Amino acid sequence: MEEKGTISIHTENIFPIIKKFLYSDHEIFLRELVSNAVDATQKLKRLSSLGEIKNELGDLTVEVSFDEKEKTITILDKGIGMTAEEIKKYINQIAFSGAEEFVEKFKDAKDANEIIGKFGLGFYSAFMVAEKVEINSLSYLESATAAKWVCDGSTEFEISDSDKTSRGTEIKLFINEESSEFLAKARLEGILKKYCKFLPVEIKFGTAEESVPDGKDKDGNTQYKTVTKDNIINNTKPLWTVAPSELKDEDYLSFYRELYPFSEDPLFWIHLNVDYPFNLTGILYFPKVKNDFEVQKNKIQLYSRQVFITDEVKDVVPEFLMLLHGVLDSPDIPLNVSRSFLQADSNVKKINSHVTKKVADKLNELFKKDRKGYEEKWDNIGLFVEYGMISDDKFYEKAKDFALLKNDEEKYFTLEEYKEKVAPNQTDKDKKLVYLYATDLGKQDAYIQSAKKRSYDVLVMDRILDNHFINMLEQKLENTTLVRVDADTVNKLIDKDEKVESVLSEKEENRLKEVFEKAIDKKDIVLSMQALSPDEMPVTITLPEFMRRMKDMAATGGGGGMGMMGNFPETLNIVVNTNHSLATKIINAKKEENKIKLAKQAYDLAMLSQNMLSGNDLTNFINRSVELATQ
């Protein structure tokens, strides 16, 4: 038999489109051809299980090889094979799916859809790298005649009888000059390991050498010899395809190390296994999330029937869940013709919602089952939970019961628990609940200690997203505001309309203010005299909560006009405690220069407590401290 014909297509220009534009990355030609070979093998196994094939199937390994001299790459399977008529039907009629007939024929067989693969455009990805493609195939059907199909990338083909004697299909690509990079062992093996490392049929790529024990020497030491074996590049039964009941913790940890060999072990994981209303399997791991969450993203790998698709899964999982690591596998996620980009349809949205729900359920389960263990993990998962609560209202509604707030004593509280704890002592004159927080326990210690003298509690809010989280809490929590512990003097952080009388007269206060104005000599400050407790600092420097928050938001990429807030000059509030003994000492100092020196020292001390003293000002402060100490 010999026949010539024209490939049935709708436009003469489809080949240039396939070669240049159909796929974003030319390397996936190998993924398409190998996954087609696996589909053909799976079909054969399915037919055998249904009793359609009586003979032994034998070795079903898919083999990938290349010949650098001949400039060819060959993909060989021992699967279902094709007759000449099937080649014409499935290969020549672009985008026709042979799977439709297969489904119809075995529609009553259990899980028939599971092993359906599509022929058509996936095969034609070969022409992105090949100037000519040959197909040699022998169908599993008894008395079938082997067929050979040849095409040089035009719309013309030749089909003829073949001398192939073994069942299956061999596809040979004659690589074009521009694609010679693919005629290298390392390049091909890298592609295979990227896309095919979990395919359900063994993929052989050449051979590999391995050292194996070979007896012992006279001293009892183990001897080794080098043996050559088939280089099987894939694990045919990855963990997500195994029932959770058959797995132990070490299995999950071992698989995580296989996926992320240079990462710390995860905190815990979720094994997904859904078959209604969509099919979804996978394992999602909770990593130890660092404060730089951009580093953590794009670690979830998406598969379709164990074929790697992408690690950009933003349409399948919500943004905040991209901090998780692991694998998702679903045949129901629609892909465009190249299998490379997700389309947002109803199934994707259902999967998105389901994954979010499963994550929330897992966290809630851990919280209720082992509160202490959950608290120990909180520093690593808190950022993730905050991210979810900020970005997803449905997740917030679930997470509000297991999200924790941590105070400076490293005690943890749910949102409701914390409200009950601080309400009696941290409610202001307008009946508003005030949560105090610190972003740096070391730098803000003086302010924290002042708050503690009044039995106020101070939360720790030092994560990268805490500025956004604080704003969200103020929107969600009724009649509640959050104020940084160094945003004002302690008596004004929670204004209870309590007045403290000053030991200085009005005249003395005015004189004290004049001295400090001379000592500070700066325009970008607001200087005020306030009667505080005598045991408070003599001088306190604060930045108003609104201004501080806007600058913090700008620093972490706040939207709108916040970006320019980072460039605004800071207007500092300088509060002099008129009831501190130093205030009286300054007033009573006989020389003006001594008054100014003491005021300057108190101001610099306040600057130092805010980590705002540096350079020449710091040197002068040290020298002045020595001078005052020796007087």
Automatic annotation (TrEMBL):
Keyword Nucleotide-binding: yes
SUPFAM superfamilies xref list: ATPase domain of HSP90 chaperone/DNA topoisomerase II/histidine kinase, Ribosomal protein S5 domain 2-like
Matching PROSITE patterns: HSP90
Pfam families membership: HATPase_c_3, HSP90
Key words, A-Z: ATP-binding, Chaperone, Nucleotide-binding
InterPro entries: HATPase_C_sf (IPR036890), Heat_shock_protein_90_CS (IPR019805), HSP90_C (IPR037196), Hsp90_fam (IPR001404), Hsp90_N (IPR020575), Ribosomal_Su5_D2-typ_SF (IPR020568)
The family this protein is said to belong to: Belongs to the heat shock protein 90 family.
The protein's name: Molecular chaperone HtpG
Organism ancestry: Bacteria, Pseudomonadati, Bacteroidota, Cytophagia, Cytophagales
